[in-house]
């Protein structure tokens, strides 16, 4: 155990709260400052990101503090995607192999659970209603507004973790340092959350164990189940244009649009118009930056250094994996925090960039490709390849979701596999064609090539 | 002629000064605000970007206000690159065809000339020593510090052009609007300016009509001639690492490094150590952003919306071309400024992105590839192709430098030509091999393919 540090965490969200537990376990004293009130006492943020998909990387981080099973119990497994076409016909596509699922969890519920777990720890103290206004990184001096008293408070931060999300004020201070690399890019789409309440019998009005998608080419709606029997739907929709948030102005516009586009959802959404016109439009931003640290004084983590769009369901999982990776590095830590931070940011940056790019790419898959029978056939063929060559071929989605292979490796390998699949699919009209000798021969040849490449890449990982 | 506007330009640099002339010609009243004192009265910015390469796009914009020839007279044509190896051996590579050159001009001299031309115009007023501190875009309200009086001044900006460079305060205000796309990325290299004074006879100590390059793999030095007989050298060098700005601490370090690396330059640089240790290290940033305008109230132009690294010599040329394009659009202007701004930014953004990427790529060419005989042979072969097929093949460098084809078209066409050159060069060991039947046949076939593609692209341009 190295020297006990007084650590400040900005942000008591999912990543900040989980991080506090890991750091306290290592013997450090942690103070968490959070802009908002204690979410366990006051209901916040109606209409914004009510549930999230938790997958293997996230569970791994929860395992480290012993709450994996407890969380799994209040999460709803989603075994695959359920596509709804314009006539209300359903098609199901499993995410992975038998037993592989992603889990719908309540963001607020999980956050509260992490707070409940950490708050009794004598080494962890929460300070709510404290908004970071200004940060002098060199002097380690933070100025906060105490929203309970209205007063300004000054804070010396011996060591600071910025877990304060996509619009991080800690990152904002880093951006003012010399030669800082930074980008923020917005999709021309926003999102709006809508609700499907529980059915009359209290159960779920749609198949419970699936992520529902209404793919409509350049936009889409999705729905994830909640444990109370409801679904939270999210409409991803252009800000402007012929069919867009801008073009839908009245209840009639809305109803006509839904009747044409999502007819099977209308009877399930009694409060559609009210939800639609009272909920805010969320924006979809990707943030990339570098470096993530300032000397041995501050480190960004989670969305603060790599906010991604939600289409791979990996935002929270990637933030949790930051903690797993940092904790692994602490196993062999020599006491030099600055070099630890540098090692961490160098290790994680390529993976953060990869999941950011994957997430943008997956929007196209979800809103468009999943409606294409050829695409679904290809997914089945990939499943067969994985079955036949479990060590040599894991589909991209599975690498990202059901393994902890580095995201950057998954992206690279996925590209190689994509090239091979294009060749293979030329010979495939139906699943049965997979067994044809020419397909088997082609695949074998391609896999040998791929293995050579993979061996080379593995050295880099 | 549309309604006469009161136009504010922030920044009296090259782009701001030239823009004022174009706008006044259209009948508008222009006020230019500049943070620094009048550069014609006070010598500024020693050691930073003393000369620049002016090429066709820049001259075209100067032609529009009738000073092309006057500028050409005080500029030094550089017909090609002169490479210096570690033994001081020289190799020359022409930039284009006979008569095609880029021109070394004094940044301060050109800026002063533009000011001298515009200041007597009763519709153009310069306000020096005015620093933009804050800008409220919605209210069109600018707050400036008057550095002569120390007072704050408020300004209503009926229409504002932000020509205030890579660290633009006008852009800074736009960045605070909703869903603003922005990126700044720095190379891990800095630059330092050094001087080769005139020879004893008052002439140039190196070949005058060339851009000199000392390519050294991952870093390089270049030199451009000035009209007083001197050269301004720029060392592009890593910030950190074994050989870097960080590693060179003493006069001895510096001398040893130059003796090993640039031995032929040492006798020409009597003030090397003084220059090196007193001049600042400049940083190399690429800025991309979108949109460039705010309603009908403000428009960014030049470096303010597309700062690029200097390796293609196109920063000023691209900014001047913004003005040419805007002026062309004003020819058919219907009086709707907001839609003009939107049309302008949509038209220019792909070209600004392209030249930014080309400039980063050209750093590798200059510091590394130009030292490779195979690369120089390839350039010669490309020259032959251009000679044989003048309408079908213009080398990438020439498209960028000696034409006004859109940068984005040049980048795309350059990529196609690069693929073809890879195939062609497999058959080439010397320039004479160009005439071999198999080379001629291959080229003909590839050009047919390329023409088809080009026809398709031309429709998009």
TrEMBL record, chains A, B:
**Tagged with keyword Flavoprotein:** yes
Listed under GO biological process in this entry are: anthranilate metabolic process; kynurenine metabolic process; L-tryptophan catabolic process; NAD+ biosynthetic process; quinolinate biosynthetic process
**Entries under SUPFAM superfamilies matching the protein:** FAD/NAD(P)-binding domain (SSF51905)
Q: What is a single molecular function from GO for this protein?
A: kynurenine 3-monooxygenase activity
- Report the pathway entry: Cofactor biosynthesis; NAD(+) biosynthesis; quinolinate from L-kynurenine: step 1/3
- The organism's superkingdom is given as Bacteria
Required co-factors:
FAD
Q: What is its EC number?
A: 1.14.13.9
Write out the catalysed reaction.
L-kynurenine + NADPH + O2 + H(+) = 3-hydroxy-L-kynurenine + NADP(+) + H2O
What residue intervals traverse the membrane? Answer: 7-24
Q: Which InterPro entries match?
A: FAD-bd (IPR002938), FAD/NAD-bd_sf (IPR036188), Kynurenine_monooxygenase (IPR027545)
Q: Name one Pfam family in it.
A: FAD_binding_3
Keyword Transmembrane part of the UniProt annotation: yes
Q: Where does the record place the FAD-binding domain?
A: 7-175, 295-357
Sorted keywords for this record are:
FAD, Flavoprotein, Membrane, Monooxygenase, NADP, Oxidoreductase, Pyridine nucleotide biosynthesis, Transmembrane, Transmembrane helix
EC class name:
oxidoreductase
Question: What is the stated purpose of this protein?
Answer: Catalyzes the hydroxylation of L-kynurenine (L-Kyn) to form 3-hydroxy-L-kynurenine (L-3OHKyn). Required for synthesis of quinolinic acid.
In terms of PANTHER family, this protein maps to: KYNURENINE 3-MONOOXYGENASE
Family, according to the entry, reads as follows: Belongs to the aromatic-ring hydroxylase family. KMO subfamily.
Q: What is this protein called?
A: Kynurenine 3-monooxygenase
Q: Which species is the source of this protein?
A: Pontibacter lucknowensis
């Amino acid at each position: 155990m190295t020297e006990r540090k007084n650590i400040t965490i900005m942000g008591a969200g999912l990543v900040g709260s989980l991080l506090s537990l890991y750091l306290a376990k290592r013997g450090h004293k942690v103070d968490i400052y959070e802009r908002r009130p204690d979410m366990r006492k006051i209901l916040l943020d109606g209409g914004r990101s009510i549930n999230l998909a938790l997958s293997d990387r996230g569970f791994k981080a929860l395992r480290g503090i012993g709450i994996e099973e407890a969380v799994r119990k209040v999460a709803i497994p989603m075994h695959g995607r359920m596509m709804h076409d314009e006539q209300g016909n359903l098609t199901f596509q499993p995410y992975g192999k038998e037993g592989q699922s992603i889990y719908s969890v309540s963001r607020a519920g999980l956050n509260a659970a992490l707070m409940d777990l950490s708050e009794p720890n004598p080494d962890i103290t929460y300070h709510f209603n404290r908004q970071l206004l200004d940060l002098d990184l060199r002097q380690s001096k933070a100025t906060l507004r105490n929203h309970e008293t209205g007063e300004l408070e000054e804070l010396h931060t011996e060591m600071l973790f910025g877990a304060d999300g996509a619009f991080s004020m800690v990152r904002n201070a880093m951006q003012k340092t010399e030669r800082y690399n930074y980008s923020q890019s917005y999709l021309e789409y926003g999102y709006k959350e809508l609700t499907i309440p529980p059915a009359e019998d209290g159960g779920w009005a749609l198949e419970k164990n699936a992520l529902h998608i209404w793919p409509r080419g350049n936009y889409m709606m999705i729905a994830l189940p909640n444990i109370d029997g409801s679904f939270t739907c999210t409409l991803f929709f252009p800000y402007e244009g012929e069919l867009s948030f801008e073009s839908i102005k009245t209840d009639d516009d809305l109803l006509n649009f839904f009747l044409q586009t999502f007819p099977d959802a209308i009877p399930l959404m009694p409060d559609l118009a009210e939800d639609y016109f009272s909920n805010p439009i969320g924006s979809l931003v990707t943030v990339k930056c570098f470096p993530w640290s300032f000397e041995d004084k501050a480190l960004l983590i989670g969305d603060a250094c790599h906010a991604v769009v939600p289409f791979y369901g990996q935002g929270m999982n990637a933030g949790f994996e930051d903690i797993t990776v940092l904790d692994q590095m602490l196993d062999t830590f020599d006491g030099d925090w600055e070099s630890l931070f540098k090692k961490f940011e160098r290790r994680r940056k390529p993976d953060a960039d990869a999941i950011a790019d994957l997430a943008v790419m997956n929007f196209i898959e979800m809103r468009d490709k999943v409606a294409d029978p050829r695409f679904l056939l290809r997914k089945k063929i990939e499943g067969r390849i994985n079955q036949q060559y479990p060590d040599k071929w894991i589909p991209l989605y599975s690498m990202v979701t059901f393994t902890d292979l580095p995201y950057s490796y998954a992206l690279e390998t996925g590209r190689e596999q994509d090239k091979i699949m294009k060749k293979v699919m030329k010979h495939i009209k139906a699943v049965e064609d997979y067994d044809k000798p020419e397909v088997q021969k082609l695949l074998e040849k391609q896999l040998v090539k791929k293995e050579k490449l993979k061996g080379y890449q593995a050295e880099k990982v």
